[in-house]
From TrEMBL:
<comment type="similarity">
    <text>Belongs to the recoverin family.</text>
</comment>
<feature type="domain" description="EF-hand">
    <location>
        <begin position="196"/>
        <end position="231"/>
    </location>
</feature>
<keyword id="KW-0479">Metal-binding</keyword>
<dbReference type="InterPro" id="IPR028846">
    <property type="entry name" value="Recoverin"/>
</dbReference>
<feature type="compositionally biased region" description="Pro residues">
    <location>
        <begin position="11"/>
        <end position="23"/>
    </location>
</feature>
<dbReference type="GO" id="GO:0005509">
    <property type="term" value="F:calcium ion binding"/>
</dbReference>
<feature type="region of interest" description="Disordered">
    <location>
        <begin position="1"/>
        <end position="25"/>
    </location>
</feature>
<keyword id="KW-0677">Repeat</keyword>
<dbReference type="InterPro" id="IPR002048">
    <property type="entry name" value="EF_hand_dom"/>
</dbReference>
<dbReference type="InterPro" id="IPR011992">
    <property type="entry name" value="EF-hand-dom_pair"/>
</dbReference>
<dbReference type="Pfam" id="PF13499">
    <property type="entry name" value="EF-hand_7"/>
</dbReference>
<dbReference type="InterPro" id="IPR018247">
    <property type="entry name" value="EF_Hand_1_Ca_BS"/>
</dbReference>
<feature type="domain" description="EF-hand">
    <location>
        <begin position="147"/>
        <end position="182"/>
    </location>
</feature>
<protein>
    <submittedName>
        <fullName>Kv channel-interacting protein 4</fullName>
    </submittedName>
</protein>
<keyword id="KW-0106">Calcium</keyword>
Length: 238
């Protein structure tokens, strides 16, 4: 039952920690980053397109398409797109630019590189190393106004590093390690050495791998989260 899933024995390690107070949840930082990427932060693409006489232009779908696929209104989509085009004339963002702006939302000295890479990859649905307006607006919707299920689906994508539709223990370890590295000194009370990460991963992975086949499927991920509020809270606060 629900109470049974939420409980844990005294010897069981806790689930992966949420970022400590007073820091905002990581997904809120991601949301703020995406929002500011088109509302006031100047950056250059610094890409191979700079060498071309005419940079390729990304042509997004219609306004109506984005209204259908998100909950944004037509006026909101138009405003977002105008600001996005002002900051990103080609309509494309490479990972270096993404990471550069993302670093502004964390304490100085925090190691954001690996986690920013994983976030970028989770938004890069084409897996081509470039984000377009559709990638960004879908991410903005999910992280700002999405339901718990929406955020959990995004979290699954974040952990599914190779995009094969399942999470292996190594993938979970890499993402959890990146979260600890990202929080820098704020994570220090939780992270004493590598065994702490391993203990957290073992606990969560064993709970999620319901059929004991060594990987966590999307259905297993969602079922476990829905039956354990602590794990859900940790996942959507990333």
């Amino acid at each position: 039952n629900r109470h049974h899933h939420r409980g844990q024995s005294p010897s069981s390690p806790p689930p992966p920690p949420s970022p400590p107070s007073p820091n905002r949840p990581l997904y809120r930082r991601v949301y703020n980053f995406i929002r500011q990427a088109w509302t006031g932060v100047k950056f250059s693409l610094d890409s191979e397109f700079d060498d071309l006489e005419t940079p390729p232009r990304y042509r997004p779908e219609s306004v109506q398409y984005f209204c259908r696929t998100t909950g944004f209104t037509e006026s909101e989509i138009k405003k977002i797109y105008r600001n996005f085009k002002t900051e990103c004339p080609t309509g494309l963002i490479k990972e270096d630019a993404f990471r550069g702006i993302y670093s502004q939302f964390f304490p100085q000295g925090a190691n954001i590189s690996q986690y920013a890479h994983y976030v970028f990859q989770s938004l890069d649905h084409e897996r081509n190393g470039i984000l377009n307006f559709e990638d960004m607006v879908q991410g903005l919707w999910t992280l700002s106004r999405g339901s718990v299920d929406d955020k959990l689906r995004w979290a699954f994508t974040l952990y599914d590093l190779d995009g094969d539709g399942q999470i292996c223990r190594d993938e979970m370890t890499r993402v959890v390690t990146a979260i600890y590295e990202l929080m820098g000194k704020f994570a220090e009370p939780w992270l004493k050495d590598g065994t702490t990460v391993a203990a957290h991963v073992d606990f969560v992975f064993q709970k999620m791998d319901l059929n004991r086949d060594g990987v966590v499927s999307f259905d297993e991920f969602m079922e476990t989260c829905k039956n354990d509020e602590n794990i859900t809270r940790a996942m959507i606060s990333m």
